[in-house]
From TrEMBL:
This is Major facilitator superfamily (MFS) profile domain-containing protein. The chain crosses the membrane at residues 39-70, 90-109, 118-135, 177-197, 294-316, 328-350, 357-377, 383-403, 424-447, 453-474. The keyword Iron-sulfur does not apply. Its main location: membrane. GO terms for cellular component: membrane. Residues 42-480 form the Major facilitator superfamily (MFS) profile domain. Keywords: Maltose metabolism, Membrane, Transmembrane, Transmembrane helix, Transport.
Length: 526
């Protein structure tokens, strides 16, 4: 193949779904979605464990509204049946520790055995943890099962976005990545639905059934692994170029321009190795352009915690019950359904208007919403209570449509090829640490036998979310439609965040040269 042939091919790659250099990024259509249905199918397989992530995130808050669970693990305080703040802290700590440790371990495990086998291991551990929880009779045993299960789905949660980001076509990469949040919201809603369906039971099966149903997503994942390809970048770093090409074709279909995709990935890896003198250590994630990438991802995910998602999503049902809302579990069904609809609304938007408008604009809007909810909650009457509940539901819709969904797109596409898993793991650990702080303090702020702040807790989140909005406005770059060689170039040249959108990259000739080099190597082997 001549240089002219390759250049011509590169100029027409958009027709085969993978642009070399994105001079423009046309809006996605239903035709694009249909043509990439294979890609979306693999995304749903890879993102099965985030269903457990969402399910688990809502478990404690929802089960605190289930009487048999409260009778098993709670105590009566001033005539009210409560699970003590200390025991809530223990259960929340299991999720936090499991996620933190799994994020750290993911970088080592996936580097050794690959992404595919790591996700398989995650599924097995998740199933084991759920079984332990099902047979629990004490807080300690429940803690152990949650810790094991969380470590399992934590591996999958850390690997999923990285896995998909490597193989999804540029045009649909944002949509593919925000499916992570879709699966998390589905998990939250499914948990609420199962708890609601079992709410009429008077035995301990009222809470054991919602726990055991968590084995379904990892079982589906293990079945899907039989057709799932391995990570191309993991294969390329190990010199398995032809296997990486086959992996791209398996994931994207036979019409996909795998040669160009391999050339772009190989070029990005080479540039990263040159920039870091061949190093791929954990410390490199904090140095130079890689340090900037790590900070951007961490701040986006930490913004989710500071803006109050643990209150609105995790403690929604519990707050409804404490606030005296009739049929708290039933109201929660509508709230989670609206959040899911908000997430679905983000699908066409993330690759139409871009990551930056979705995250910055969304964060400012929901920060203002916190001030409104907090202000209404200062009034103690029935009308104010109804207004608070309504605005919490609206807040959840806006959050899931903007920051909640789009953060996963930034998390998957921002790290360098060589350090992607380590960078994302650091992000998960940082976000989990902040989440731990929030979850440990939350029971004391909400419980009726403690500060009993109710909706006024939004004032606290407002104070933390304002500086996050400022940071995101000045420091979050736009990476819509860019391939990894372009992203690598912009970070290496230290382009200011607000100039990413209009910056013209110069990597096309390098990609063409890389394809010529790879073609010559293939010819020589033959």
């Amino acid at each position: 193949m001549t240089a002219e042939d390759i250049k011509t091919d590169a100029n027409h790659v958009e027709a085969t779904h993978e642009p070399v250099v994105s001079a423009e990024n046309p809006n996605i259509t239903f035709r694009d979605v249909w043509e990439n249905r294979r890609v979306l199918g693999f995304c749903f397989i890879i993102f099965m464990l985030p269903v457990n992530f969402g399910y688990e995130a809502s478990t404690v808050g929802n089960l605190l509204a289930v009487i048999p669970f409260m009778e098993q693990f709670g105590e009566v305080v001033d005539g009210t049946l409560l699970v003590s703040a200390k025991d809530q802290q223990i259960l929340n700590a299991a999720t936090t520790v499991g996620l933190f440790v799994s994020a750290f371990a993911t970088g080592f495990i996936s580097d050794i055995i690959g992404r595919k086998k790591s996700i398989g291991l995650a599924g097995v551990l998740c199933i084991a943890g759920v079984i332990v929880q099902y047979f629990s009779h004490t807080i300690a045993t429940l803690f152990g099962g949650k810790l094991l299960g969380t470590f399992g789905f934590g591996l999958g949660h850390s690997l999923g976005p990285v896995f998909v980001a490597e193989m999804a076509p540029n045009k649909l990469r944002g949509t593919c990545l925000i499916l992570v949040n879709t699966m998390i919201v589905i998990g939250q809603w499914l948990n609420s639905l199962v708890v609601y369906a079992c709410s009429d039971r008077t035995t301990d099966m009222a809470w054991r059934i919602p726990i055991i149903t968590q084995v379904i997503p990892p079982c589906l994942l293990l079945l899907g692994l039989t057709i799932l390809p391995e990570s191309p970048s993991w294969l390329l770093i190990r010199g398995r170029t032809e296997d990486a090409r086959k992996s791209y074709l398996r994931f994207n279909g036979p019409d996909f321009d795998a040669d160009t995709a391999v050339a772009v990935a190989a070029l990005a890896i080479r540039k990263e190795q040159e920039e870091t003198a061949g190093g791929g250590s954990w410390m490199q994630c904090f140095k130079g352009p890689d340090g900037r990438r790590t900070l951007i991802i961490c701040m986006v995910y930490i913004a989710q915690q500071f803006i109050g998602v643990n209150f609105v999503s995790g403690y929604l049902t519990y707050y409804f019950r404490l606030a005296g809302v009739k049929n708290a579990l039933g109201v929660a069904q509508a709230a989670y359904a609206i959040q899911l609809f908000g997430n679905i609304c983000s699908w066409p938007l993330v690759d139409r208007i871009g990551r930056r408008p979705m995250i910055v604009g969304g964060s400012i809007t929901i920060t203002a919403g916190l001030l409104i909810i907090g202000g209404i909650s200062t009034v103690n009457n029935k009308a104010a209570l109804n207004a608070t509940v309504s605005f919490m539901v609206i807040w959840g819709f806006l959050y899931q449509m903007t920051l909640g969904a789009t953060a996963y797109s930034v998390g998957g596409e921002t790290p360098s090829m060589q350090l992607r898993q380590k960078t994302y793991a650091i992000n998960i650990m940082a976000a989990t640490a902040v989440s731990c702080m929030v979850l440990q303090v939350m029971p004391y702020l909400i419980n009726s036998d403690e500060l009993n702040l109710g909706g006024k807790i939004c004032f606290i989140f407002f104070a933390f979310s304002v500086p996050m909005c400022v940071y995101l406005y000045y420091c979050l770059p736009e990476m819509k439609g860019r391939n990894y060689a372009e992203i690598q170039e912009m970070f290496d040249k230290r382009i200011p965040a607000r100039q990413f959108k209009d910056y013209v990259c110069n990597v096309q000739d390098e990609v063409i040269a890389k394809r010529i080099e790879m073609n010559d190597m293939k010819t020589a082997e033959v």
